[in-house]
Design brief:
Bound molecules: adenosine-5'-diphosphate, magnesium ion
CATH topology of the largest domain: Rossmann fold
Distance between the termini: 37 Å
Strand order of the largest sheet: 6-7-8-3-9-10
Number of strands: 14
CATH architecture of the largest domain: 3-Layer(aba) Sandwich
Shape: elongated
Structural class: alpha/beta
Order of helices and strands: EEEHEEHEHHHEHEHEEHEHEEHEHH
Strand content: 15-25%
CATH class of the largest domain: Alpha Beta
Number of helices: 12
Length: 347
C-alpha cells in the first residue's frame, strides 16, 4: 500500500534546469521523511509539486491516498504547508492571524477562537498573541507560521526548511514542537539543508542532489553504508601497544593506525557495539589496561560528502554555533555517539 505521501518518477524542468529529474518518494503514515540536500537540489520544487502548487512535467503523486494531479482541491484540504511561503499577515496580531486561518477553513467563529488560543499556548506565543506579527522575532514568526499550518490538524504536513536561519535556541524549540506533532500521528515531509536536523527529526532520509534521490534509508543505515565505523583504544602503558594492536587487528576490517605518543590505536570495524564488548574482554584477558575505548561512528556529514563529493551547503556551522555547543547538543541525543572518524583513509 502506498504511503501517506507517494511519488513516482517526478520530473520538472524550468527552461534548461531539471529541478526534478525522476524523483520517487514514499512516506508511510505517521512517519517523518527528511528530504536532505544542498541549495538548488530540488527540495522546494518537490514540495510544491506534492502540495499542488506546481504541475510536474512527468510522474505521478498522491497525498493521503488522493491523486495530486487529478484532485488537487481534495489534496489541499488534507495537508498543511509551512516554510518558504509563509502565509502570515504582518499587520494582524498572532491571534488574529490564527483566527483568520480558522475562518478560511470554515471553522465556526467560536471554534476558530478556541483553536487559536490553544495553538498560541502550544507554540509559546501567548505573551505576544495580541501584538502585530511584524513585531515578532524570526523564531516567533516561524512558530506562528507553523501554528497557522496546524489550525485544521492536517493529517499530512509539509515543512520546507522550517529552521533555516534560526538561532540554536529557536531551532531547538521548533524541533520540540515538531516532535510533539509527529508523536500525535501526523505524517511529515520535511526539507532541510542541515544534516543534524534530519538526524534528529526524520525516521527516513532521502538525500537529493541535482533533482535526483541519490540515497535513502534511516540515518543509521546511511551511516553504515558509508562505512567508516572505527574502534579506538587508548592503552594505559606504552609497552602494551603491540599486543593491543594485534588484538584490534584481529577484530578489524583493515589495517590499524597507531599513535605511540597518545597510546591510541584505531581500527576500522563493522559489528558495532557487540564487537566493542568482545574487544574489551580480549584485552582484559591479556592484562592490557585501557584508559579509553570507544566506537566512533561516521556523522551524516561524512555520509553526505561521500555520496556527493561535496559538503551540504549550510551544514556544519549554519548559525555560527561553536563546535562545543554542537557537541553539547549532540550529547543530548541518547544512545548516539558521534565523532569524526580519525585517520586519513576516510571514504
Ligand atoms: N520557478 C522557477 N523558475 C526557474 N527555475 C527554478 C524555479 N524554481 C526552481 N528553479 C530552479 O530549480 C532548481 C531547484 O530549485 P529548488 O527546488 O528551489 O531547490 P532547493 O529547494 O533544494 O534549494 C534550482 O536550480 C532553481 O534555480
Ligand atoms: Mg528550497
Amino acid at each position: 500500500m502506498p504511503g501517506a505521501i507517494h511519488a513516482e518518477g517526478l520530473v520538472k524542468t524550468f527552461g534548461e534546469v531539471r529541478a526534478l529529474d525522476g524523483v520517487d518518494l514514499d512516506v508511510p503514515e505517521g512517519t517523518v521523511l527528511g528530504l536532505l540536500g544542498p541549495n538548488g537540489a530540488g527540495k522546494t520544487t518537490a514540495v510544491r509539486v506534492l502540495t499542488t502548487l506546481v504541475q510536474p512535467d512527468r510522474g505521478t503523486a498522491s497525498v493521503a491516498g488522493v491523486d495530486v494531479l487529478r484532485r488537487p482541491d481534495e489534496v489541499r484540504r488534507s495537508i498543511g504547508l509551512s516554510g518558504q511561503f509563509a502565509a502570515v499577515d504582518e499587520y494582524l496580531t498572532g491571534r488574529e492571524n490564527l483566527r483568520m486561518v480558522g475562518r478560511l477553513y470554515q471553522l465556526s467563529g467560536r471554534e476558530a477562537k478556541r483553536r487559536a488560543g490553544e495553538l498560541l499556548d502550544r507554540f509559546h506565543l501567548a505573551d505576544a498573541a495580541d501584538r502585530p506579527a511584524k513585531t515578532y522575532s524570526g523564531g516567533m514568526r516561524r512558530r506562528l507560521d507553523l501554528a497557522a499550518a496546524l489550525v485544521v490538524r492536517p493529517p499530512v504536513m509539509f515543512m520546507d526548511e522550517p529552521t533555516t536561519g534560526l538561532d540554536p535556541r529557536n531551532r531547538q524549540q521548533l524541533w520540540e514542537v515538531i516532535q510533539e506533532l509527529v508523536a500525535g500521528g501526523t505524517t511529515l515531509l520535511l526539507t532541510t539543508q542541515y544534516l543534524e536536523e534530519a538526524d534528529h527529526l526524520a525516521h527516513d532520509i532521502a538525500v537529493v542532489d541535482h533533482g535526483r534521490v541519490i540515497a535513502r534509508g534511516t540515518s543509521d543505515q546511511l551511516k553504515a553504508r558509508t562505512g567508516g565505523e572505527r574502534v579506538e583504544v587508548v592503552v594505559h602503558r606504552p609497552e602494551h601497544i603491540p599486543v593491543a594492536d594485534a588484538v584490534l587487528r584481529g577484530f578489524g576490517d583493515g589495517g590499524s593506525a597507531v599513535e605511540p605518543h597518545t597510546r591510541r590505536i584505531t581500527v576500522p570495524v563493522s559489528g558495532g557495539a557487540r564487537l566493542l564488548a568482545e574487544i574489551i574482554r580480549e584485552l582484559d584477558a591479556r592484562d592490557v589496561g585501557i584508559d579509553d575505548i570507544g566506537l566512533r561512528r561516521p556523522t551524516l556529514d561524512d555520509v553526505f560528502i561521500s555520496l556527493t563529493g561535496h559538503a551540504a551547503e549550510g551544514a556544519g556551522e549554519p548559525d555560527g554555533r561553536s563546535e562545543q555547543q554542537r557537541e553539547r547538543q549532540q550529547g543530548r541525543q541518547p544512545g548516539r555517539r558521534q565523532g569524526r572518524p580519525q585517520g586519513g583513509d576516510s571514504p
